[in-house]
């Protein structure tokens, strides 16, 4: 089959690789129809992980079931399915508690919890930027989509990651109807956090970035865009909230945040959040802060240290929730919002390309070239 493989730093290629196939009775085999490039793929692409060459990338996948193992009861050949990026078992302690991002079964590294398709450190599983994908524990890991999803793939594919992740950011922040919220990062995840805030009935929604095209997308759904290249985002948020600070805040950038002039701490976003969220307010952090150091296999977390004003965070009595999104926990709800026409997450899609053009898609998305917000790949095209 054709697949997009990692070949080294900023080097991905479409190659012929052995077909994905059913390996265990609980597997499902999916022919991928739509698969996205994600900001998280850039951690591997930019060479910041120990991703081995030859691995197939891609964790935002949907497609049609073409074969099922003998132990599969629920999913049927012909079903159109979306695949949460977390690969989980459904029966371990964390999965039982709904924390499928921290599955204790699917990652063979005993120091880790949680697995994903085509992701460094998240188990050996291949990704779905390919013609075929093997889905472990298929009855658990396939979200069966309504028939109309065939014609609206660019909406439904967002259920694999960015829509639930944006929603998760607002959950971690504790957002309630009518409250104000500031979101750092207007990439796909931050834009989905803004959409989620709207859907939850937030009051004022403010989105910070410096790319005009991304800020414009935030403006399209009624959020207030804040360009931090034009002045302090913290001051602007405080002005917009009568000096009190936002009720809630979300971090949707991660450790690759650009420097903000005049900020004393190396990670501007966490520090800005502490300064622009009110006393007793809540902060949700979904941006990734634990890159693996490729030169240090013994220390998975070595590069994860960041500094921010913890004293002020404590003094303000703020709460902070963190971590990967447990996609399954939100999937049915968010699928319902798409089906009812109440959410149209495809508004962020900028490009839809055949798999053969994936390397160019990576190049433009990585460079944050103007207008390259979200790239969808169609392996069957
Ligand atoms: P992205 O890189 O496309 O978007 C990040 C945006 O943040 C960019 O538009 C950039 O201009 C902006 N930015 C950079 N520095 C900033 C700063 N100091 N202040 C404000 N904005 C700043 O990525 P994405 O796809 O939107 O993903 C965002 C983060 O979320 C990444 O770290 C990704 O790995 C992570 N992520 C986490 C989960 C999860 O489960 N927790 C899931 C998906 C993605
Ligand atoms: Zn993703």
UniProtKB/TrEMBL annotation:
Q: Which cofactor does it need?
A: Zn(2+)
Q: Which organism is it from?
A: Streptomyces scopuliridis RB72
This chain belongs to which protein, by name?
Answer: Aldehyde dehydrogenase
State one Pfam family annotation: ADH_zinc_N
Residue intervals of the Alcohol dehydrogenase-like C-terminal domain = 188-292
Question: Can you tell me which family this protein belongs to?
Answer: Belongs to the zinc-containing alcohol dehydrogenase family.
**Record key words, sorted:** Metal-binding, NAD, Oxidoreductase, Zinc
- The segment(s) forming the Alcohol dehydrogenase-like N-terminal domain are 25-137
What SUPFAM superfamilies does the database record attribute to this sequence?
Answer: GroES-like (SSF50129), NAD(P)-binding Rossmann-fold domains (SSF51735)
Domain of life, per UniProt, equals Bacteria
Query: GO molecular function: any one?
Result: oxidoreductase activity
